[in-house]
Specification:
The complex is a heterodimer. Chain A is built from nine helices and four strands, in the order ααααββαααββαα. By secondary structure, chain A is mainly alpha-helical. In chain A, a hairpin with a 7-residue loop joins β3 and β4. The two termini of chain A are 42 Å apart. Chain B is mostly helical. Helix content of chain B is 61%, strand content 4%. Chain B has a two-stranded antiparallel sheet with strand order 1-2. Chain B has a two-stranded antiparallel ribbon with strand order 3-4. The termini of chain B are far apart. The C terminus of chain B is likely disordered. The chains are: A mainly alpha, B mainly alpha. At the A-B interface, α9 of A face α4, α5, α10 and β5 of B.
Chain lengths: 260, 426
């Protein structure tokens, strides 16, 4: 499998090599975006699957850190069963959130614990409330963040670990933070992860990079929950097509041999 | 004795055929259709394109069952298809990548026709119907791209519909009429949805005419010569059904690679951000299959007027639109612009290289279309190269095709395909 992966990389590199050559002399600012670190993910490659432990840790990071400002509104609590939780566990995880429901028979809205069928609770009732609480900036919904940013999981992980003091001569606007990987280097979000910011149930050391990696894995799953099924089906489909094309080619040659 | 027998089937078939000759017509035009025996694999792409059209319509119909054409719901309804509809992700990725693969097939098909002179008499109408299909495909693909209502959807719709405002006098009125309001909004999404559903069936109609014209003039072939002897033909079935099936399956492997392993690589990340009329994306780009046209549109960044006066006859915007439209409309005239009596470039020592250059030029234009308008390559503004490429595109059709056709000395043509195919031994 390793050999296959490296072969695939080689192919990709060769294919993209030509393009890369063309894009080399672009401006320095563009180059910085291109040189995003390339991490090794459990889910990359045609045989990649999500590491269930990383998904559960990532969900914990999302819930304890990110969800204070970022919604995840495309997801329902029932989707968490894909992280390896049992039905009872999903019910418990859902019920930890109070959501508004209704109206009841008296025409009033009321609060109740969330059910697995409910969507993830959003931290703010609307965009204005979110902006008001965040200095005018809008924390984006994270459901599709991996697909909506160039570099995907690599970008998110790099961004979360990319906070550093601004280089000499770079003025950071008050209320903004310097980040190596953010376009323009000024991001409204302060460094969200701190060493030991969450305490993992499985004993994994909660370093900033570990948490960033876990939450990026979780968000990749959130953006592409179908990826494992898709790749598994794809391998069967491609195998079938390769065999089928071989048979077709053999029959075609036999048929046309009569003509030549 | 069983009730079923082939004789019964046969007599039912005859009964129908006497009243409506659908069976014999289909047989004559599918299995018995006489195809030149020397068609190479480049000839597969017509069938592959038709196959992709069917896939697009089939997946599209099921997507529509789950899609909501409303500005507040379109984006989320697409995500619901991706997450909650059974195999919805498969339908959507097949449809999304299918558009790209459809264009790959059609572009190869067009360049095959250009290289082997398939547009020349008596196949002018066949070629022109093909150009019409391309135009319809472009409109359909553009409107389809708007439907998920992501950032690129919205801004592509804004940029492209705004092009109409370049028309003199009535431009702005036409844009308002297209939008159904004073900006791209819900009425725009609704009409694009309606037309995106309609146009594929119009394409099916024109494909039917395209095939009708093909079966009237018969297929061109890699030698580009007129075929007379019956030995030059083979029945379409089983020879080309089998060869075609092999080529189609190879194409399907490429298609499935994108669908299953890299479904978003041909798209743009910004389209996973819901449309926001208040935030313009940093860099608006169309899908890859429109990039060469986009480069041509942007190449005209100067007004055309009477020299030494301030009088502008065609402003840069209108000029860009005319050039972009012209790049496709000019293909309608190719049968008359190319003056050479020889069809196949195999026997045209000069024009052959010009066709290759044209293909390379289209790739260069595509690359330039993908870059920001102010990008530069080693100090040279990319748009200059874009201008040069645009100039070359039109120079190829308007000057080189007529002139080279007259001055070029073609290689001697074989008298029949039997000679080269059988190596002169027959």
């Amino acid at each position: 499998m390793l050999r296959f992966l490296s072969f695939r990389h080689l192919l990709l590199r060769t294919a993209l090599g030509g393009l890369a050559l063309i894009s080399l002399p672009l401006s320095a600012a563009e180059q910085e975006h291109v040189r995003l670190p390339q991490y090794d993910w459990s889910f990359s490659g045609p045989f990649g699957t999500y590491d269930r432990a990383a998904l559960q840790r990532g969900y914990q990071v999302y819930k304890e850190v990110c969800s204070a400002c970022h919604s995840l509104h495309q997801l329902a609590y029932r989707n968490l069963s894909a992280l390896g939780y049992s039905e009872a566990q999903v019910k418990t995880l859902a019920a930890q959130n109070e959501i508004q429901a209704g109206p009841n028979d008296a025409g009033e809205m009321f609060m109740r614990p969330a059910l697995p069928s409910d969507r993830f609770k959003s931290p703010f009732p609307n965009e204005q409330a979110a902006r008001a609480a965040n200095n005018g900036a809008l924390p984006p919904d994270l459901s599709l963040i991996i697909k909506a940013r160039k570099g995907g999981a690599d970008y998110v992980r790099a961004l979360l670990t990319g906070y550093e003091p601004a280089p000499a001569g770079f003025t950071v606007t008050p209320g903004m933070n310097y980040n190596k990987w953010f376009a323009g280097h000024q991001i409204a979000m302060p460094a969200p992860l701190t060493e030991g910011g969450v305490s993992y149930g499985d004993g994994t050391k909660a370093s900033v990079d570990q948490m960033a990696s876990d939450v990026a894995t979780f968000l990749t799953w959130a953006a592409e929950p179908e990826a494992e099924v898709r790749k598994r089906m794809g391998i069967k489909v491609i195998l079938f097509l390769v065999v089928f094309s071989g048979l077709l080619y053999a029959s075609k040659r036999r048929l046309w041999a009569k003509l030549h | 004795m069983s009730l079923f027998s082939w004789n019964t089937v046969d007599s039912v078939g005859k009964w129908i055929d006497v009243r409506l000759p659908i069976i014999s017509t289909l047989k004559a035009h599918t299995s018995d259709y006489p195809a030149p025996r020397n068609l190479n694999y480049w000839w597969e792409f017509g069938f592959i394109a038709m196959f992709m059209l069917v896939i697009m319509i089939a997946t599209g119909i099921f997507l529509v069952m789950n899609y909501t054409p409303h500005v507040d719901m379109a984006f989320n309804s697409v995500e619901r298809i991706m997450r909650d509809v059974n195999y919805g992700w498969l339908l959507r990725y097949l449809h999304m990548n299918g558009a790209s693969l459809f264009f790959i097939a059609v572009y190869i098909h067009i360049f095959r026709g250009a290289y082997y002179g398939s547009y020349k008499a008596p196949r002018e109408l066949l070629w022109m119907l093909g150009v019409l299909i391309l135009l319809l495909m472009i409109m359909t693909a553009f409107m389809g791209y708007v439907l998920p209502w992501g950032q690129m959807s919205f801004w592509a719709a804004t940029v492209i519909t705004n092009l109409m405002s370049a028309l003199p006098l009535v431009g702005q009125e036409i844009v308002t009429w297209l939008w159904g309001g004073f900006s791209v909004g819900n009425p725009t999404l609704n009409r694009f949805f309606s037309l995106h559903y309609l146009l594929p069936f119009v394409i099916v109609g024109v494909v039917f005419l395209h095939l009708w014209a093909l079966h009237t003039t018969k297929s061109n072939n890699p030698l580009g010569i007129d075929l007379k002897s019956p030995q030059d033909f083979v029945p379409f079935h089983p020879y080309y059904t089998l060869k075609g099936a092999f080529g189609t399956v190879l194409f399907l492997i490429l298609y499935c690679y994108f669908v299953f392993f890299n479904p978003n690589v041909l798209g743009h990340t910004d389209n996973y951000i819901p449309a926001n009329p208040l935030v313009t994306p940093e860099h608006i780009v169309p899908e890859w299959y429109f990039l060469p046209y986009y480069a041509m549109l942007r190449a005209i960044d100067f007004n055309i007027g009477i020299p030494f006066t301030d009088i502008v006859i065609i402003n840069s915007k209108l000029g860009g639109v005319l050039v972009m439209l012209g790049s496709i409309l000019i293909l309608f005239f190719l049968p008359w612009l190319d003056t050479s009596p020889v069809r196949s470039c195999t026997f045209r020592p000069i024009y052959k290289w010009l066709v290759f250059l044209l293909i390379i030029n289209c790739f260069i234009l595509g690359y330039i279309g993908s870059q920001p308008a102010d990008a530069s390559f080693g100090g040279i503004p990319l748009n200059w190269i874009g201008k040069l490429g645009t100039f070359w595109y039109f120079f190829h059709f308007l000057v080189l095709s007529p002139v080279v056709g007259r001055i070029e000395r073609p290689l001697p043509l074989p008298t029949s395909i039997g000679t080269p195919v059988l190596g002169g031994r027959a």
